[in-house]
């Protein structure tokens, strides 16, 4: 046998073996040799059908296993972070994807190591939807799918209307207001405290197009270096309280400024008392000045608001009902002198350099729980306890002096008792600095001479707090 014959035999040997095996199988099955091609076609056809059936069965088993997991996607809320998770049979599927997720602001993250699926995102469209989970059980087989209903509730903010106040309404007041009082550094370059304030109409008022009832006024007297800050909350049930709060702030601040702008005896009484606080005569002398300036300033505000009833027919003093808190402050060589008056709810607090808090009064309620007392109530100044509404403090220095209406204090502190909790005040300061990132609300940069702080503070007042939709006003000396 030559080389070519040996090469051909080696090359055809395996085929000849298969041919013999095929021929033997056909002989045992009684199939004529001339039907070889038909036999092969039928045999391989049956084999392929068995393979397809096995793959289909495997697909159905996996689909049933996944269906029996009872995957349910929880509802979410528009513009809120959404997370939902489930686990698919590990090793039985490949390439899962979630049709419809991208359009809603969601994505599916799949871990092939353990079969865990995580749906995350921030949905942007409210309504009922159906997502389709698609996956493969066997390579080459059609994709399987599982339909997953999901619903997203509207962002509560989107349900609120913001109807501008009619500028023709009596005692019209803009829906928001800001102020920034920049106080230049001293002759030696030492920074001096500035004031920032903002007031925003509450959602409950905006929903109906009603005016803002809150008010504030903040001033710094360049000649005497006195600061005066006032904040007032007009009663929501009083039809002209927006005017009452305005007149109360304006009158109290104007009264105090006139009496502290050039008052050497008052400032000497402050220095005398600071030098010897145990001296009762010095304390009495200072207290008398505070009565004549601060308490009488509150009384002047009370009278001015009461007179408003004479300007409008068919009105009563209670139609102008308002709370009022205000403070006068000045830095001396020994530290800061602060005197204040407070009637009604809200909060007024001095935060020292080390974080200690000193409330400048106590929120007071009326006859029934949930009510408050107002500057316009005649008994306020008839009660000897009116003197308890005055506070006098001398501090080496402080971080901030804050005055706010209950539109801010209620959501921040929740209860009057929490006003005495330093941790709650630290939380408020942290909120002021960093805002509410989850709601897209930025913080307030309370650095020296930052005039942008006024607009930042107004934006900050738009924070979301379920059930708290009153006017919001805050003034900060810092």
Textual characterization of the structure:
It is a single chain. By secondary structure, the chain is an alpha+beta fold. A hairpin with a 4-residue loop joins strand 14 and strand 15 (357-359). The relative contact order is 0.10. 33% of the residues lie in helices and 25% in strands. It has helices at residues 3-28, 36-67, 101-104, 203-208, 241-260, 264-275, 280-307, 406-413, 422-434, 453-460; strands at residues 76-77, 82-87, 94-99, 106-111, 116-121, 127-136, 144-153, 176-181, 195-200, 214-221, 226-233, 324-332, 335-343, 347-352, 357-359, 390-395, 398-404, 472-477. It starts with a helix and ends with a strand.
Give the SSE layout.
Blueprint: H1 3-28, H2 36-67, E1 76-77, E2 82-87, E3 94-99, H3 101-104, E4 106-111, E5 116-121, E6 127-136, E7 144-153, E8 176-181, E9 195-200, H4 203-208, E10 214-221, E11 226-233, H5 241-260, H6 264-275, H7 280-307, E12 324-332, E13 335-343, E14 347-352, E15 357-359, E16 390-395, E17 398-404, H8 406-413, H9 422-434, H10 453-460, E18 472-477
Parallel strand pairs: 1-7
Antiparallel strand pairs: 2-5, 3-6, 4-5, 6-7, 8-9, 9-18, 10-11, 11-12, 12-13, 13-16, 14-15, 14-17, 17-18
Helix pairs in contact: 5-7, 6-7
Primary descriptors:
alpha+beta, 18 strands, 478 residues, single chain, 10 helices, 6-stranded antiparallel β-sheet, 5-stranded antiparallel β-sheet, 33% helix
Task: Kindly summarize this structure in a few lines.
With 478 residues, the chain is an alpha+beta fold.
Provide a count of the helices: 10
Q: By helix and strand content, what is the structural category? A: alpha+beta
Distance between the termini: 111 Å
Strand arrangement within the widest β-sheet reads 8-9-18-17-14-15
Profile the largest sheet. 6 strands, antiparallel
How would the global form be characterised? elongated
Rounded mean pLDDT is 90
Oligomer: single chain
Share of residues in helices = 25-40%
| SSE order, one letter for each helix or strand | HHEEEHEEEEEEHEEHHHEEEEEEHHHE
Q: Rg from C-alpha positions?
A: 39 Å
How much of the sequence lies in strands comes to 25-35%
Poorly predicted tracts of residues = 6-11
- Please give the number of β-strands: 18
């Amino acid at each position: 046998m030559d080389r070519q014959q040996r090469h051909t035999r080696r090359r055809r040997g395996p085929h000849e073996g298969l041919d013999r095996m095929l021929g033997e199988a056909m002989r045992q099955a009684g199939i004529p040799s001339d039907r070889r091609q038909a036999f092969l076609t039928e045999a391989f056809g049956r084999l392929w059908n068995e393979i397809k059936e096995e793959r289909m069965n495997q697909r159905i088993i996996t689909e049933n296993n996944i269906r029996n997991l009872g995957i349910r996607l929880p509802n979410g809320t528009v513009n809120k972070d959404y997370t939902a998770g489930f686990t698919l049979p590990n090793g039985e599927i490949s390439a899962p994807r979630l049709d419809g997720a991208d359009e809603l602001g969601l994505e599916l993250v799949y871990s092939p190591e353990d079969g865990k699926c995580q749906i995350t995102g921030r949905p942007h469209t409210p309504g009922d939807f159906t997502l389709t989970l698609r996956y493969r059980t066997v390579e080459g087989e059609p994709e399987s799918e599982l339909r997953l209903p999901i619903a997203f509730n509207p962002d509560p903010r989107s349900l609120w209307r913001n109807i501008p106040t009619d500028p023709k309404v009596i005692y019209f007041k803009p829906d928001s207001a800001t102020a920034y009082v920049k106080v230049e550094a001293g002759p030696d370059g030492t920074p001096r405290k500035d004031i920032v304030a903002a007031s925003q109409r509450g959602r409950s008022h905006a929903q109906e197009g009603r005016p803002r009832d809150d008010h504030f006024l903040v001033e710094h007297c360049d000649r005497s270096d006195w600061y005066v800050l006032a904040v007032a909350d007009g009663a929501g049930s009083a039809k002209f309280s927006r005017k009452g709060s305005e007149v109360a702030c304006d009158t109290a601040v104007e009264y105090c400024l006139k009496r502290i702008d050039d008052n050497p005896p008052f400032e000497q009484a402050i220095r005398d008392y600071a030098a010897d606080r145990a001296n009762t005569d010095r304390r009495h002398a200072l207290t008398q000045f505070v009565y004549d300036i601060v308490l009488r300033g509150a009384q002047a505000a009370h009278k001015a608001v009461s007179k408003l009833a004479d300007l409008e027919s068919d009105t009563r003093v209670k139609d102008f009902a308002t709370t009022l808190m205000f403070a006068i402050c000045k830095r001396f060589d020994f530290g800061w002198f602060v005197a204040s008056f407070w009637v009604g709810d809200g909060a007024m607090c001095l935060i020292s350099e080390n974080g200690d808090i000193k409330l400048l009064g106590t929120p007071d309620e009326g006859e029934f729980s949930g009510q408050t007392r107002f500057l316009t109530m005649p008994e306020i100044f008839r009660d000897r306890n009116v003197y308890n509404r005055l506070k006098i403090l001398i501090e080496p220095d402080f971080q901030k002096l804050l005055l706010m209406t209950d539109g801010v204090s209620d959501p921040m502190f929740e209860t009057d008792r929490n006003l005495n909790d330093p941790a709650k005040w630290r939380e408020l300061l942290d909120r002021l600095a960093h805002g509410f990132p989850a709601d897209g609300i930025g913080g307030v940069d309370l650095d020296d001479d930052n005039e942008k702080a006024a607009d930042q503070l107004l934006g900050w007042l738009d924070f979301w707090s379920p059930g708290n939709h009153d006017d919001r006003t805050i003034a900060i000396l810092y």
